Amino acid sequence: MTQNQLLNVVIDKQATAPATPVSGQLYYNTSSNLLFMYNGTTWIDIASGDITAVNAGTGLSGGGTSGSVTLNFNPDNTTIEVDGSNNVRIKDLGVTTAKLNTDAVTTIKILDKNVTFAKIQDIPTLTVIGNLSGSTATPSAISVVTDFTSPLNTNIPTTLAVKNYVDTTVGSLGNLEGGFNATSATLPVAAGGTKKGDYWYVTVAGTPSGVSPSVTLAVGDVLIANQDNASTTNSSQWVFLETNQQQATTTIVGITRYATGAETQTQTEGSAAVTPLGLASLTATETRQGLAEIATQAETNAGLDDTRIVTPLKLATYVSNATGSYSTSVGNGAALSFTVTHNLNSSSVIVQLYENSTGAQVMTDVVITSANVVTVSFTAAPTTNQYLVVVKK
């Protein structure tokens, strides 16, 4: 049979496989209508090979055990989806933070320019991702605001919002509108309408005749609108700064200066105010009127201080102590000697006796016993209170 044809041959037909096959043996299965070959180990379907079935695994459907089969991909539509062009892709919000733990996605995983704006364009309008509470805080969505009506530490403004805020704030400070003639009947109006903070300086002094409450302005004074569209006749809607204040006098409220210590002491300056410190320097002397401290009793008694003054009471106390006297009557019709306690605290005393009935001076024995006691003696016992004993320093 070498290189010869085998025509119209019929392969061995069997309902079941032969029991003792050898390698290369063929038979036709009349039950399945398939041609089989024995490979030395098992019978192989020559037409379809050794695949007996295609089974659908996890996430798949379809398959079969014969003929042409189809497997279908079944995404969960939560993390994975198939778009309209049959492209498999990660669904929006399909990757959670658990899948993106620290260092889980490195620069090696995401190459330059692989994440485009189109991939993150689902971030809500006027929201950015960042951190406003500290370098270690977790980034989060931050609102972008277009005005300053609700300023918070959790949002950021646009550059236009900042510009509008600054323009409004600076604009509210007012403008210098120019000079004002205070002899006018009314207060001024700014071009385009007066806004709060607009101000003028007085170039001509006067009292606007049509303004109430009345206000008198001097050259250099400043008038400031205290509200938008401030009234030209109501001065209570304005603030007036008296920058050109007059010298203060006994009848005029104005500005003044403090007198020096020398001016206070000479007492000739009439246009300067005296401070407490300056007044303290105005001490009284023998040639100048001024302030003086009252001497204590000890200072009065010592007689050494020449800058303090002595009151009548302290002087009388001193004189009384320096030139004091004591008197008492003695005599009881029996005793010849009497002890007199005078408490003048001095042994340099003068003792004199007088008869109470006649006033005549009487001579008798006197002994200075101590600085506070003297003893008087008689040759005959005096009657009751017959004599007056006087002790003087």
Question: Could you please describe the fold and organization of this structure?
Answer:
- This protein is an alpha+beta fold.
- Among the domains are: 1-74, no CATH class; 130-169, no CATH class; 323-392, Sandwich (Immunoglobulin-like), CATH 2.60.40.
- It contains six helices and 25 strands.
- The protein has helices spanning 117-120, 159-171, 261-266, 276-280, 297-302, 312-322; strands at residues 13-14, 26-29, 34-38, 43-45, 54-55, 60-64, 71-73, 80-82, 88-90, 127-130, 140-145, 155-157, 176-181, 199-204, 222-225, 238-241, 257-258, 272-273, 325-330, 337-341, 350-355, 361-362, 365-368, 373-377, 387-392.
- The strands form eight sheets. The protein has a four-stranded mixed beta sheet with strand order 1-2-3-4, with no helix packed on it.
- The model has no long low-confidence stretch (mean pLDDT 85).
Q: Which structural class should the secondary elements be placed in?
A: alpha+beta
What is the rounded Rg? 64 Å
Shape: elongated
- Quaternary arrangement of the chains shown? single chain
Helix content: 10-25%
Measured by DSSP, the beta-strand proportion falls in 25-35%
Number of strands: 25
Mean pLDDT: 85
Walk across the major sheet and give the strand order. Answer: 1-2-3-4
| Count of discrete alpha- or pi-helical segments spanning 4 or more residues | 6
Give the biggest beta sheet.
4 strands, mixed
